């Protein structure tokens, strides 16, 4: 199975939310963790949210490509609103402009010359802690919009949350000033109230921003509709009629872990492991299995692999076609 087949198997449809933001004063203190699991405000996905379902390039942690800018380590933690529990195995997309305010993938009047480019876009699957981490650059700004990063959380094939995050005004502009040779447009002139997205509320969308030895790091906790488990949509229901992929145990794991799955009918079963940059690293199973419950043990050292975070995908092939689903395993050494 090639990488393109893998990505098609995990592609999910998207639906936005309609919950408005909460109006806040610009001087009011903000928070980055949601003790009350407040639903993340829905924002526009446009104008440049490439459909990543069919774009196999974008399963990656480092989205910079050759873009110049101050390094930013961005971590998002996804929790369910119904119980405040972390949500593992959900797909999180990010995309944002470069240091000059341009987006990859489009060639329009105010974004010319970017068609066919893929920089500063990517997605990951949340680990056992409900977290994803990306390496990117700190985004620039453009007329009419404050500095921001788009993100989309795919909970199931029937529901996803689309929103944006931004940063503390003083910290953000201090970064621009300290790196004026890179960010030649200077400080971002907009306030939250002057931005048509954040003017109706931004309290739950301001990520932390702290300087590190290599650049900056940022964190935001995001609450979406759910209970701490992946949601069920049409595609998931169809797949469950053939195969149910369980969470590996223990998870997180140290030296070995077990992958459980249940077949509703006899099928040819393949289990493939991929690293966090979308590279297939191992075919763990490829054989016919009868209906019922099954387990496959994974010991990284036996396959010349490090104990690390991997995506594991099962493909169950019957006369009705190939049914695929994927989960994330987390290492205690991550």
Question: Layout of SSEs?
Answer:
Blueprint: H1 3-10, E1 71-80, E2 91-95, E3 121-125, E4 131-137, E5 149-156, E6 159-167, H2 169-178, E7 206-207, E8 210-211, E9 216-224, H3 234-240, E10 243-245, E11 257-263, E12 267-274, E13 280-289, E14 292-298, E15 310-318, E16 321-329
Parallel strand pairs: 1-9, 6-7
Antiparallel strand pairs: 1-4, 2-3, 2-5, 5-6, 8-9, 10-11, 11-14, 12-13, 12-15, 15-16
Describe this structure as you would to a colleague:
This protein is mainly β and 334 residues long. The chain contains three helices and 16 strands. It has helices at residues 3-10, 169-178, 234-240; strands spanning 71-80, 91-95, 121-125, 131-137, 149-156, 159-167, 206-207, 210-211, 216-224, 243-245, 257-263, 267-274, 280-289, 292-298, 310-318, 321-329.
Briefly summarize what is shown.
The protein has helices at about 5-10, 170-180, 235-240, and strands at about 70-80, 90-95, 120-125, 130-135, 150-155, 160-165, 205, 210, 215-225, 245, 255-265, 265-275, 280-290, 290-300, 310-320, 320-330. It is mainly beta and about 325 residues long.
The count of helical stretches stands at 3
Quaternary structure annotation: single chain
What is the string of helix and strand elements?
Answer: HEEEEEEHEEEHEEEEEEE
User: What's the story with the biggest beta sheet?
Assistant: 5 strands, mixed
Computed CA radius of gyration, to the nearest angstrom: 21 Å
Strand content: 25-35%
What general outline do the C-alpha atoms trace?
Answer: elongated
Strand arrangement across the biggest beta sheet: 3-2-5-6-7
What share of the residues lie within helices? under 10%
Low-confidence parts: 10-31
Distance N to C terminus: 27 Å
Structural class: mainly beta
Mean pLDDT: 88
Count the E strands: 16
């Amino acid at each position: 199975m090639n990488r393109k087949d893998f990505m098609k198997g995990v592609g999910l449809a998207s639906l936005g939310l309609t919950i408005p933001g909460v109006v806040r004063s610009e001087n009011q203190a903000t928070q980055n963790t949601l003790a009350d699991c407040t639903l993340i405000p829905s924002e526009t996905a446009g104008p440049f949210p490439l459909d990543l379902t069919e774009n196999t390039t974008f399963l990656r942690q480092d989205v910079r490509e050759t873009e110049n800018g101050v390094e930013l380590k961005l971590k998002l933690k996804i929790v369910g609103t119904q119980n405040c529990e972390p949500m593992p195995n959900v797909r999180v997309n990010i995309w944002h402009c470069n240091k000059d305010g341009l987006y990859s993938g489009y060639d329009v009047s105010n974004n010319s010359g970017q068609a066919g480019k893929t920089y500063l876009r990517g997605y990951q699957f949340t680990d056992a802690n409900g977290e994803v981490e990306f390496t990117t650059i700190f985004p620039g700004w453009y007329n009419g919009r404050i500095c921001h990063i788009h993100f989309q959380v795919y909970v199931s094939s029937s529901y996803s949350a689309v929103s944006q995050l931004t940063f503390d005004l003083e910290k953000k502009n201090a970064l621009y000033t300290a790196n004026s040779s890179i960010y030649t447009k200077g400080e971002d002139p907009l306030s939250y109230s002057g931005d048509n997205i954040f003017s109706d509320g931004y309290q739950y969308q301001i990520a932390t921003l702290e300087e590190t030895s290599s650049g900056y790091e940022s964190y935001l906790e995001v609450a979406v509709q759910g209970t701490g488990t992946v949601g069920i949509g049409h595609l998931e229901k169809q797949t469950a009629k053939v195969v149910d992929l369980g969470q590996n145990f223990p998870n997180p794991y140290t030296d070995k872990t077990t992958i459980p799955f249940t077949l509703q009918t006899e099928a040819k079963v393949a289990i493939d492991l991929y690293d966090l940059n979308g590279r297939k690293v191992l075919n763990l199973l490829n054989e016919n299995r009868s209906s019922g419950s099954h387990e496959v043990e994974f010991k990284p050292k036996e396959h010349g692999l490090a104990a690390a975070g991997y995506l594991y995908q099962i493909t169950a092939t019957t006369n009705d076609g190939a049914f695929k689903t994927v989960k994330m395993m987390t290492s205690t050494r991550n």
